[in-house]
Amino acid sequence: MANKIVQKKTHMKEQSPTERIKNFNEVPLGYTEKEAIAEANRCLQCKNATCIAGCPVEIDIPGFVLKIAEGDFKSAIRIIKDKNVLPAICGRVCPQEDQCEMTCILGKKFEPVGIGRLERFIADWEATQKEIEIPEIKPKTGKKVAIVGSGPGGLTVAGDLIKLGHEVVVYEALHKPGGVLVYGIPEFRLPKAIVEREVNFLKKLGVKVVTSFIVGKTKTIDELLEEYDAIYLGTGAGLPWFMNIPGENYKGIYSANEYLTRSNLMKAYLFPEYDTPIVRGKKVAVIGGGNVAMDSARTALRLGAIESRIIYRRSEKEMPARIEEVERAKEEGIIFDILTLPVEYHSDDEGWVREMECIKMKLGRPDESGRRRPLPIEGSNFKIEVDTVVVAIGQSPNPLIPQTTSDIKVGKWGNIIVDTESGKTSKKGVWAGGDVVRGGATVILAMGDGRIAANSINEYLKTGVW
Q1: Which has the closest alpha carbon to 278: 270, 286, 289?
Q2: The domain 144-238+396-463 belongs to what CATH superfamily?
């Protein structure tokens, strides 16, 4: 390892803002082998590696980084995949700055090691190899597990349990596996081919994937329990929230779920190859300050918007979006109207939204979230000209499974209640995790929930003790 500490992360090349707003190609271009080795050599190889504790799936981060520094890429990917079956995805969309990189010792004085960039590099390197190494699969146990939902949590459970010898079938309501990874995250942040690649790896391990299968309609949980020994619910949070303000039902106002699903999963961005209807507004406003809001505003630009803006009721400091996503949005020319709250919409004679009336806000004392509460400034109303509005203020779990499974307990927001130590629901033989439990959260937290549940499911299948 190098003796001299390099203070800044090795630069990762990106498409320029002027180029990338014209296409849906991935923005960051990844490390070369030389760049990855240089970045890996920044790692201090701490004896007490706090970065591992910062990772929800507990990857041996110093271990895989050391192997990259040594040029032993095969060992590096083996170490990662021992804990994480979706490294190419996590390397791209996980908020490392709030997790492993936040706890990096080097980051106390300088920039932390680019752990996410290195994870992405090694996963992409593996994809270039002729043969992907298949981990050891334990002898068949004769036990069958159904995974409901093929998002990051469900795929993690599937990967863990198939390696332990259990038969695993994943049920997905949509026509493509991947959950939020394919319908929610745009191509320029997570190419769909990468999600497909990770799913195909699980299929090689023996995981079966059944698409266009709506649990709660096609079959109920009780019907699946007649066939399976255990069930994991990873159905996400697909029920969008709205603000319930005057004019919100005008034409041209959409949930981020619908807007992004049309663009991503249904490939409206590939027009005319795919003729999926999608609004191509010229003056687009996106309500919210999270990653979904950034994704929506940046998608609007690529669909031809002349003006795309973020409307957020707090200050930029309180925005839950990743810092790099906010920075990229700014580079691309997204307008940020912070401390601003929509209060009413105005339409033309045909019912299409044409103006958004807003009020300016100021920050008061912190609320239960720990962030300062936004308070309206009386008499500060003003109007913004818009022809498209995307509401990205959050979402709840789809109520279908709780509605068709009477003995699964849910919270007041419709989230499934679980034992956090095991992921067990109130119904015997059924576990849950990710956004269906947490509400809208992150990919890696869903994977962490999946890891906990997989361990608990395996124990139950071995002992029969609930």
Answers
A1: 270
A2: FAD/NAD(P)-binding domain (3.50.50.60)
